[in-house]
Amino acid sequence: MAKQDRAVRTRQTILSAAAKVFEERGYQASTISEILNAAGVTKGALYFHFPSKEHLAQGVLAEQDQRGPVADRPCKVQQLVDTMVLHAYRLQSDPMVRAGVRLSLDQQAQGLDRTGPFTRWTDVGLELLEKAQAQGELLPHVLPAETADVLVGCFAGIQAMSETLSGYQDLPRRVSALLRHVLPSVVVPSVLAAVDITQGRGAAVYAEVQHLAPPAPQAAVS
User: Fold this and answer.
1) pLDDT digit string, tens, across residues 63-114
2) Helix 76-93 vs helix 144-166: crossing angle, to nearest 10
3) Closest CA to 49 of 59, 61, 38, 64
4) What pLDDT band is residue 144 in, cutting at 50, 70 and 90?
5) 68-88 burial, b if ≥16 CB within 10 A, otherwise e?
6) In Å, how far from its chain's centre is CA 118?
7) Contact 38, 80 (CB under 8 A)
8) pTM, whole model, 2 decimals?
9) Left if phi > 0, otherwise alpha if psi is -120 to 50, otherwise beta: which for 168?
């Protein structure tokens, strides 16, 4: 078990180093040598976990899915909002999430399949919107698949704008504004009146998730 734990910690060390390099340099300019130096592991240890730079990038892209999800809410619109604002908060505080977003939006990342995050986020939104619809939370004309697609696309644009203009510092404000503009055309007014879309919601949801989450494995050098 100790050997398995060490392997998990080593993998996390490599992913954390790769995230740092990818965020700073972008996919094309990053090299395995830079990631090795940042991780402080042997070449054999790195290639055991990740056979190529592309595998490293896909590992970073997938890692955000391992972050604790929002707890189930009776109101599915609130759960959808909380999922979005939690991701926004993590963009401000979590280098792995920032690196994953940079990779997913990096149009210079030739040969890297960047579709995964967009597909996963759309699927998450679709599932919550379909549940909201089944509970009578959405207006009659709403098509959940279309709304999920619009929300993911808008969020991608908002976060890219925020990163460029303020290094994500104004992202909570921008996400709150996005929700104020989009949700009235989607959600039943009586439901929307009870949904919290304020700028401080992301920090509150993050604190809740941290309280409920099991301890994360500590990085280690191998």
Assistant:
1) 876 677 899 999 999 999 999 999 999 888 888 888 888 887 777 777 777 7
2) 20
3) 59
4) very high
5) eebeebebbbbbbbbbbbbbb
6) 10
7) no
8) 0.80
9) left
Residue 130 confidence (pLDDT) above 90: yes
Q: Which two tokens stand for residue 124?
A: 């998450």
Beta strands in 121-203 (DSSP E): none
CA 169-96-147 angle, 5° bins = 70
Q: How far is CA 4 from CA 11, 12, 95, 147, 173, in A?
A: 11, 13, 25, 42, 42
Residue found by looking up tokens 């597909």 in the block? 119
Contact 175, 31 (CB under 8 A): no
Domains of the chain: 2-60 (1.10.10.60), 67-212 (1.10.357.10)
CA distance 65 to 97: 9
DSSP state of 138: B
What is the percent of the chain with per-residue pLDDT over 90, rounded to a whole number? 54
Using CB atoms within 10 A of its CB, is residue 208 exposed (0-12), middle (13-18) or buried (19+)? middle
> DSSP H helical segments within the chain, as ranges?
2-25, 32-39, 43-49, 53-63, 76-93, 95-105, 115-134, 144-166, 171-182, 189-192, 201-212
Q: How confident is the model at residue 200 (pLDDT cuts 50, 70, 90)?
A: very high
Q: Using the 8-state DSSP alphabet, how is residue 185 labeled? A: G
Q: How far is CA 25 from the centre of its chain?
A: 19
